[in-house]
Design brief:
Low-confidence stretches: 1-70
Strand content: 5-15%
CATH class: Alpha Beta
Shape: globular
Distance between the termini: 15 Å
Order of helices and strands: HHHHEEEHEHEHEHEHEHE
CATH architecture: Alpha-Beta Barrel
Largest sheet: 5 strands, parallel
Radius of gyration: 18 Å
Mean pLDDT: 83
CATH topology: TIM Barrel
Number of strands: 9
Amino acid sequence: MKRLLKIISFLLIMVFTVGCAKNTDQLTPEKISDEKSDITFATKLINNQIESTNQTDEDLGQNKMKNSSSDTNEKKYYIDTYDFLVKPLDPENTEQIVLLTFDDCVQPEPNSYSLEIARVLQKYEVGAIFFVNGKHLETEFGRKALKEISDLGFEIGNHTYSHPYLSDLDYEATREEIVKVNDQVEEITGKRPKYFRPGFGIIGDYGLQVVQEENMIWTNWTYGYDWEEEYQEVAALVSIMTDNPYLTNGANLLMHDRKNTFEALPSIIEGIQNKGYRIVDPSELTTDY
């Protein structure tokens, strides 16, 4: 019942947010695409969840505690699909953590910095999810870069094939945008993506349906800025990513395959860590919920 109430609250929040998005300075998915966004996917989410809420809160908690057989790390956290924060499975766990995610990865040369970003993360011994567009996997460079990033141990996520507004597409087109990327990534890395991030943060009715059919976790983000004109300078980007009211426990940080991000990343990592946060490895996240 608590989960159902959270979903209903989410729909109400989305209605309010879409109406107010143009009057806020927070860079949220709703603001980025406020003129194209819709809330019908939230209605569908509620309808789907109503049918599955026969489970008790205790049952849901037990499901979240299951470990994935493909990973050996202990599962301590999950991504809440209500607010996209990373939350502990154990309510007594008070560790301060954040998650790093990167979108539009392995872009065509010479504009791709994904491998360099992965190597910086490896140097600092921190993990991240790299979300990739399938169109970037049509080149030899893109395929090789993705394979190397995966071989370094990083989680690969699905960011659609061509980065469309999924809310504009029918079911078949939406399925093609999502499933094609899952097939590409699995062919290249041997692993099927667990996480899905829609273009512009808008999943649409059919996007949600396909994600459920593919047994994936939908996640957006809590904040990100590296595409904005005022944050193209490294110092400005480091400042906004590390000195930000949205940098809180469980924050889900969005960055991109960009030169400014690559150059700012060491200072972003150090700034986050100096504030007492541990950067959680995606292998610590359960997808059994």
